[in-house]
Amino acid sequence: MTNHLLSRQQTNVLRGLAAIVIVVFHVLIAWQCHRVVNMMGSVSVAVFLVLSGFGIHESYQKNGLKNYWHKKFRRIIVPYWLFLTILTLIKGFPGWKPFLLDVCFIQSEFWFIPYLVQCYLVYWIIQRWLHRWMIPAFIIIGLIALNTMPQIAAEQSFSFFAGVLASQHIQQLRQKDKRFWLTVGAISCFIGVTFLLLKEIPAVHAYKGTLPYNYILLFIKLPLAIPFILIPTFASFIVRSRTLYLAGISSLEIYLVHLPLVPYVEKTALHFILFVAATAVLTWIYYQINHHIIAHYL
């Protein structure tokens, strides 16, 4: 059934929904809206990471590590390198250091892509050499990330692992009824909103950028991502949305092409409409280019 919890159809639609939310979020941030809109972007990023962890472990359980990096080259690494090449031709060469850091997935203005590739690398290392200790390994690495990475990444330290864990227990999870998931969603919302309100206390917000603040953010982003992921369970009609499905299968392209356009979106309805139209057209073109390369050269 297409509406099983985290079925392929569900995950594609959820990616599409999260991609659209991130596009809107970046525009609102550019328009200098209240910082509460930050939740839109970071929670959607957590959703993406959970779905990515889930998808990669589902694939591993079927195929092991066979063609692991070949698949990542086809769908993420090569398309990202192509995008950087095009962007460099348009904006000019940024210098060797930032360029190499970018193509090696170490540091980038498109921070999510390097972070996702790093998650894939960690997963590959764990399954290759630490398979028997997968859960302790993920917990240790998550704690290291939480305590050492910049805030934007640290707050997502356990999102990818949560997806892996969901995949490991997906059959049991799919046997739960809607009442169970309503309870889970309500508890997750309560945790996320509680820590969100805690964060907004001036005395607490003053610690922004510090390690304790990262721990508070951790208990906002992932808990609030869970009700987001449960949306198709209670609104099954969205699983049939062709728009969300298309946005989901082209979410990488949407993420990349819309960001360079955001600075040019003035605070008017017309500019926003033109921005959405330009993003849709460029996404379609870039998606077609990527899949032509994949089909004929990779």
How does this structure look, described?
It is built from 16 helices and no strands. The chain is mainly alpha-helical and 298 residues long. α1 crosses α14 and α15 packs across α16. It is globular and about 50 Å long. The mean pLDDT is 94.
Compact summary:
By secondary structure, this protein is mainly alpha-helical.
Structural key phrases:
298 residues; mainly alpha
Topology:
Blueprint: H1 8-30, H2 38-63, H3 68-91, H4 96-103, H5 112-129, H6 134-148, H7 151-154, H8 159-168, H9 170-174, H10 178-200, H11 202-205, H12 211-229, H13 231-234, H14 242-249, H15 251-258, H16 269-297
Helix pairs in contact: 1-2, 1-14, 1-15, 2-5, 2-8, 2-12, 3-15, 5-6, 10-12, 15-16
Proportion of helical residues: over 70%
Total helical segments: 16
Q: What percentage of amino acids are in beta strands? A: under 5%
Computed structural class: mainly alpha
Number of strands: 0
Mean pLDDT: 94
Distance between the termini: 32 Å
Radius of gyration: 19 Å
- Unreliable stretches (pLDDT < 50, length at least 5) are none
Largest sheet: none
SSE sequence, one letter per element: HHHHHHHHHHHHHHHH
Overall 3D geometry?
globular
